[in-house]
Prior knowledge:
Layout: H1 18-26, H2 30-52, H3 55-71, H4 83-142, H5 146-157, H6 162-169, H7 173-191
Helix pairs in contact: 1-2, 2-3, 2-4, 3-4, 4-7, 5-6, 5-7, 6-7
Amino acid sequence: MNRPLPCSATGPTGRSDLPALMQQVARGDKEAFSSLYDALAPLVFGIVVKVLRDRAQSEEVAQEVMIDLWRQAARYRPDAGAVTTWAATIAHRRAVDRVRSAQAAADREQAQAAREHRTAFDEVAEQVEIRLESEQVRRCLRGLTELQNQAVTLAYYRGLTYREVAETLRTPLPTIKTRMRDGLIRLRDCMGVNT
Length: 195
């Protein structure tokens, strides 16, 4: 059934013979289909190539249309319209479906590329922001007294409680609480955090 598409309709089959050919094709007559193919392939290909504008894709879609005509021959009703109109409608729908499918695939690829680009950009931006904030925190920590720096570092980076910080630094608990409070105020001011 994969026959080359003829450039023009040649052969003895006229348009008036097409309904009879369709009835024969509906009964599985391969010779009738061969004649139908020769009569309709140029029309089908012409419609498809107008929509797709790509010869290779048009040939593929036109072949699919001709196969549809073979498979759906029993559905053709002469009182609903001419065979050429029916074939042209199927050809146009198939071609439009191909365009939509290609556009949907291109849209999906573009959206995926945009997501990947945005994700990569967001990750880099986030890493830069974290690094800048970390450097600012380290700079601000250097501006604290030795005891404030140690107390804040132990509490926030090691997760120790006030009591554990006091024990680790061998300093009275009230002193640790005061130094941490003062250190956090200085950090807040250094970091430019508004409360």
